[in-house]
Structure formats: structure tokens, C-alpha cells
Design brief:
This protein has 493 residues and is of the alpha+beta class. The chain has 4 domains: 38 residues; 118 residues, Immunoglobulin-like (Sandwich), CATH 2.60.40; 116 residues, Immunoglobulins (Immunoglobulin-like), CATH 2.60.40.10; 117 residues, Immunoglobulins (Immunoglobulin-like, Sandwich), CATH 2.60.40. Helices cover 16% and strands 42% of the residues. It has 2 helices and 28 strands. The strands form 7 sheets. Strands 1, 2, 4, 5 and 6 form a 5-stranded antiparallel β-sheet that branches. It is elongated.
Length: 493
Amino acid sequence: MYKESALNLIYKVLLFIAIGCILAAMPIVLVKAEAVSNSRVIDSVEIISYELRNEQDEQRISTINPDDIVTIRVTIKDNRGGLKNNSCPIVFLNTSSFYPLDNEQKNGNAFKESGSIPGIYTLVFPVKYTGTGNKFTFDLSYSGTLESVPMTALDITFNQCVERTAEETEAVIQPDEVSEAVIQPDIVSEPVTEITEIRGTGFVLKEAKYGEGSVTAGKEFILDTIILATSGDYSVNNVNVTLNLPKEISLAKGSSVEYIGGIEPNESIPISFQLLSSTIAEEGSYVVTINIAGINSKNGEEIKTSIDISIPIIQPERFEIGNVQIPEYLNTAYDDGGGYTSIELVNKGKGTVYNVTLKIEGDGLRTDEGSQFIGNIASGVQGSADFNLKADEVGDLNGKVIVSYETSRGEEKQLEYEFKVTAEKKLDEMETDILIDPDLVRDSNSSIPWWVWILTVLGATIVIIVSKRLFRRYRDFKRVQQEFDEGDEDEDF
């Protein structure tokens, strides 16, 4: 029975150890699974933003008329692998709606912003609008060592284009020639028929505004548009405007349908919608569609037009300096280990911050580590760096923690944290492992108080008196014991 109980006890111990090992390994497995699930490979080219500017590339424009010379600036992000910091694409126009100012040069200018992350480029096209169509198409490729990256065709629809209208033409049907010799009285010559082409009235987007180039996620914004009726031969009645929104954008107030009524040719109509961008929307451009429907005032036919507006949404930056541990005092005499400094960085935003670098600066202050490169910090991740802070001067010194990083749009930014530390030169601490306590050091010239001497003399006197008495008692005891021993011996005889 005891043997069986011992075996059961050993079995339970081994079972508890196995369960503990499984529980200890679970966090590692979960972390690895999360890292795999969060990793995403994006193999595409996307258009981040575009701008329509005047011929001198000095200011933005809202309308492109036929024969206008404009400068088109397009920012793209190439997510395909193999690109390097010095890579730069080659772009070629491939559209009939625009043609380059110089026919000898079909390509635009591509360049990389200084300090931007690989894959983000700005393309510049000085072109002339032909007045036909509104689609801008171009081919993007690479040369040299990047010829293996395939060519990609990208296109943008510009609703700001005002197309040419067909001019009124006349087609005259001439009567057949009649012989002058024979006149047939029964034949009646047909009258001259005049055919006139009727110009239709349509709608184009004259202007669209939604903020300073982009919309911040989680914020309300107003979409202000101006719809222009083209130069037609008839008005449009019962005009309704309907707004179609993606899931990342919703109405903040009002309705998505607006009744306009009748519109005459060449008439402009302002329309506004108050919208709200989603807080969890990923950074990128989202298409808002404006549908316009009306009735031809002449023949009652239905007229429909759809206009797309691309709205870029960006996530607010919530990259912060978290917990900072900086000493209040520093010793300039030697390094006593009191300069330990710890700095934490927290990314509370939805996007990744790139190329994070951290350093400490200040007059009379220095660190052994200098500038530390942290790398990229993803959303919801915390980074940190440790420094050994030292002082070269004595007194109150002002310092500053400087964090440099790049956003997902290639913008370089900085965070700063100011602090103050007091530096002292402590001579009572030698350059050894033994620290001298100043309270234990006595002045060699200090005198002993008089009462100490009196107590010392009294104590010595008492000790002498007690010692004499004890000695006398011990001597008398030995004498009595000796006499007693001698008396015992006499009785024996």
C-alpha cells in the first residue's frame, strides 16, 4: 500500500511539472502566432495623392479647360520588393487627353524626396489638355539593375476637366440636277432640308474642397463642391444629387440626398456635405461618388451623371515619449554609476513610425552611447533606450532628449523632452570600492570632556575596591579549607 501511494505521489508531481511547462510555452507560441498574423506583404503600386497646378507650378487649380497648360504632380508608393534608397522610376505618358509640351520627350520627371523611405516618389508632368476625355494614364518602369521589376500602368480620372462641346454644324442636302431641255410638270422638286445637331446639357465637377490636402481619421470635415452644367441647348429639370460613401466615411449631419430643381446651361450649383472619417480607417485614398440625375426639359429623357472624388485619409500621429528616468544629481569627480538614464517611446497611433533615432544633448552633458538607432516601431509597440549620462561641469545643467523619426508619408519629425540635472564634485568618495562615512571621521584636536575623566576615575576606584575584597574573601576561604583538611587527617590516625 505504501509503495502504491509513493507511485501516485510521483505521478502527480510529474503531471504538475508537465502542465507548468505547457503553460510557460503558451506565451511564446502566442507571440509567434501574432507576429505571423500581423505580417503582410503588399506587392503593388498605389497613388497616394495628386495635385493640379498652373503652368509655372506655383499654385493649385480647380478647373482644366481645353488647351490649358498645367503641371500635374503625382505621389506614388511602390510596395514591391527590391527597391533601394537610390532607386528612381522612369515614367511615360500613355493618354490621348494630355500631351507633353515637348513632343521629343514623352516622359515626366520622377524624383525621390530627401529622407523619404524607399518606394515613395513624386512624379511631375508639364502637359497640355486636349479637351477630350479626362483620364490621365502613364507607364512606370525601372532601368539598370531593377529591370526585373515589371512595368506598371497607372491612371487617374480628373473630374476637374471641362471637355470641348461640339459646335453647331449644318448639313445641306442639295436637290438633284434638273435637265433644262425637258421639264416634267408632274415632278415637284423637294425642298431644301436643314439638319441641326442639338447640343446636350451635362454636368461636370468645377471645384471640390475637403480640407488641407488630406483628412485626419476620426475627424469631421466638410466636402464643398461646385457642379457646373455644360453649354447645352436645353435646361434640366427635377435635378437630384445623391452621395455614395465608402465604409470608411459616413455622414456627420444632414442627408446624402439633395434636391436642386431646375438648372440652366452654364449654371453653377454649390453643394456641401458634412462628413466624418472613421477612426480605424487605414491610410489611403477613398472614393466618394456624386450621382446627379435630372429630366431633359425638351424631350423628357432622363439625364444621369456620376462624378468620383478621391479623398485621402491619414491617421493622427500619436508617437510619444513615455516614461523617462533621469538622475537628479551627477558626480563630476568620477563615474559612480549614478548617471543611469532610461527613456521609453510609445506608438499609440495606427501607423508605423520609421527610422527612430534617440540622443541626449546639453551644455556640459554627454553620454557614452551617443546617438542610438531604435529602428521602426509598429502600432501599439513600445521601444526604449538606456544611456550613461555624465557631466563635465559643476552646477545646474539643462539637457534635452531628442527623438527623430519618419512618418509613413516620408515626413521627417522630432520629439523633444527637456530636463535639468545638478552636477557636483564629491571629494569624500574615493575611486575605490570603499566609501568613507564623514560621520566616522573625528577632529584630532578635539578634547575629551571633564566629566568623562571623573567617570573614568570613579570606575577605576570601584573596580580596585571590589577586586581587593574579592581577593581577601578568596584568601580567607582557602585558609579555612586548609585547616579543615588538616583536622580530618588527625582523626584518621
